[in-house]
Amino acid sequence: MSDYLITRALVGGKWITGRGGTFPVTDPATEEEIARVANCTVEDVTAAVVVVVVTGAGVVTGAEVVTVVVVTGAGVVTVVVVTGAGVVTVVVVTGAGVVTVVVVTGAGVVTVVVVTGAGVVTVVVVTGAGVVTVVVVTRAGVVTVVVVTGAGVVTVVVVTGAGVVTVVVVTGAGVVTVVVVTVVVEKAAAAAYEGWRRLGVKERAAILFKVRDCLLQEKETIAIILSRENGKPLGEATGEVGFAASFFEWFAEESRRQYGDTIPSPAPSKRLITVRQPVGVAALITPWNFPIGMIARKVAAALAAGCTCVVKPAEDTPLTALLFAKACERAGVPAGVLNVVPCSRERVQEVGAALCASPSVQVLSFTGSTAVGKWLYSRCGPTVKKLALELGGDAPFIVFPSADLTRAVEGAMASKFRNTGQTCVSANRIFVHESIHDEFVSRFVSAMDDELKVGSGLQKGINQGPIINQRQFDRLVKIVNDSVSTGAKMVRGGLSLGGLFYAPTLLTGVTMDMPVATEEIFGPVAAIIPFQKEEEVIRLANTTDKGLAGYFYSNDVSQVWRVAEALEVGMVGVNEPMVSTCEAPFGGFKQSGVGKEGSRHGLDEFSHLKYICFGI
C-alpha cells in the first residue's frame, strides 16, 4: 500500500502521481528504486537477460550498422542502432507501455522522445551549441519545459493542469530565481470555495458527520499504517484516529452555531448586526507526531467555517494524510474542497514559501517547531494573512507536598512517555518539592521498570516506539549526553537500543542551565528538578520563552487557584495530565503560538466577523 500511495497526491479531486514523497528516486536510480517504480522485484531486475546482436555475427558491417537488443525479465526491451553517418537511435519499450526513443546525429544534435502508457510524452533536444531543451507533456495536462544554454543559464517552466506554474532560473553566476504561482490553490481550492461556502450549514454538517463515520469505520486500517509510518504503538494510533473523528463530530455540530450579534443602536435610524463569514482558502501545514489528529483538528474547523483547504502534511508521515484524504473523498467531500500535497524534505521550504506567498491563501495554520513557525510568520507578512500557529512547548510538571503521590507519578508517566515523549505538551521539566523528592523518584523508577516496553508499535504490549528519524535521534542523544557531562545523574536509560529506539531515561540532579532543562526534549527522557518554595517553582516554570501547557499536582485548594493563574501557559492540567479534547481550546502563550484550535473558538481562525449597519 505504501508504494502505491507514496507518490500520489490529491489535487482538485484528482489523484496524481509523480516522483518524490518520503523515498524520492535518485539519479541514477538504484535497483531497489527501479524495482519499486516498475512494480517488479529486485530479483527481476538483477536477473535481467541481455542479448546483444551485432551485424555480421559479431562483425560491424561496411555500413557500420550496430544493433543492440536488451530484454529483461521485467519485460523491458531496448534496441540501439548506430549508423556510419554518426546517427545513433535508441528505442526502449517496457512492459508497462513506456517507449523511449533517443536519436543522436553527427551534428551534435540529440533528440529524446519518451512516451508512457499513461500518456506522458517527454522530448529532449540537445544542440551542438550547448543548448538543451526538455519538454514534458502528461495526459493530465502537465507541461514541463527546461532550457539550458551554453552560457550556463538554466530555465525551468512547469505548468500543470491544475494551474500550477513554476519558473526556475539558474545563472552561471550562481544566481537562482524561483517563481511559483500556486494556482493549484487558485484553481482547485479557490474554484471549489464559492460552492462550498454557499452550501447550507446543515449540508456541510452532514458531510462532516460522514467523514467522522468513515474514519471510525476504517480506524484499524488507518491505525496500522499510522503505526508503521510514525512508529507509534498501535493502541495509541487507534486512539488517535478516534481523536481525529471527534473533531468532525464536534465541528459538524458547531457549524450550525456560528452566531452573530444584534447590537443596540445609539441612533433610532440605524440597526447594527454582526455575522460570521468564512475567510477563504486555508493552507494547513501539519506535523508528524499526530499525523491524522492534527490534520483533522484543522480541516474539520476550516470546512465547518466554509473554507476550502490545501494540506501539506509532514514529510515523515504522508501516507496517513493520504488515507485521511481517501476517507474524506468517500464521505463525499466535493472535489477541490480538500487538497493534500505531500513533498520531500528537500522541497519543504519551497512549498511553504509558495503557500505563504499565494494571494489566494487567506489563512495559514501551522503546527510544528517555534523556529519554523517564526519563518512562516515572517513570510506571510507581504500578503497579510490570518495566522494560527501551534508551536513548541516546554511544559513544567510540578509536584507539591500536598499532592497524592500515586496520582502524581501516574500523571507524570502519562504526560512524559505518551507517544515516546514526542508531543508538544509533554512534561519537559518535572519539578518535585524537596520534601517528597526521593520518594517520588523511587516510585517513578519503579513505574518505568514495570510499565515501559520498547519495540515495534505493531507488537502486542509495546508502549514505547522509535524516535521519528535520525536527526531527532541524534539531537536527543546530544541533549542527554551534554546534560550528564555537566552533572546530571543517569538513573535509568541513556542507551541506544538499536535503530531509532532509545531507552526511556530518567535524569536527576538536573539544574536549570542544563540542555535537558533549557531545550524541548521531544523524546522519552524525564528530567527531575527539586524545589523548595511555591514562589521559586513558579519563577522557574515561567523562565522560558514558551508557554503551551503546564501541569501541577496539589490538594491545597488555595494553592491550586494561585498556581493555575500564575503559570504563563495557555493550558493548565491540575491533577490531570491529559488536557487535549475537541471541546476545549488548544493553544499557548508567548512563543508557543497564536490562536486556538478545537472548541467553539476553533472556528474563529477560519472566519471573519463582519459588521453590518442598516439605515432605516
TrEMBL record:
Belongs to the aldehyde dehydrogenase family. This is Succinate-semialdehyde dehydrogenase, mitochondrial. Keywords: Membrane, Oxidoreductase, Transmembrane, Transmembrane helix. The keyword ATP-binding does not apply. GO terms for molecular function: succinate-semialdehyde dehydrogenase (NAD+) activity. The keyword Transmembrane applies. PANTHER family: SUCCINATE-SEMIALDEHYDE DEHYDROGENASE, MITOCHONDRIAL (PTHR43353:SF5). InterPro entries: Ald_DH/histidinol_DH, Ald_DH_C, Ald_DH_N, Aldehyde_DH_dom, Aldehyde_DH_Superfamily. GO terms for biological process: gamma-aminobutyric acid catabolic process. It comes from Chionoecetes opilio. The chain crosses the membrane at residues 47-72, 79-103, 109-135, 142-159, 165-185. Pathway: Amino-acid degradation; 4-aminobutanoate degradation. It holds the Pfam family Aldedh. Residues 187-611 form the Aldehyde dehydrogenase domain.
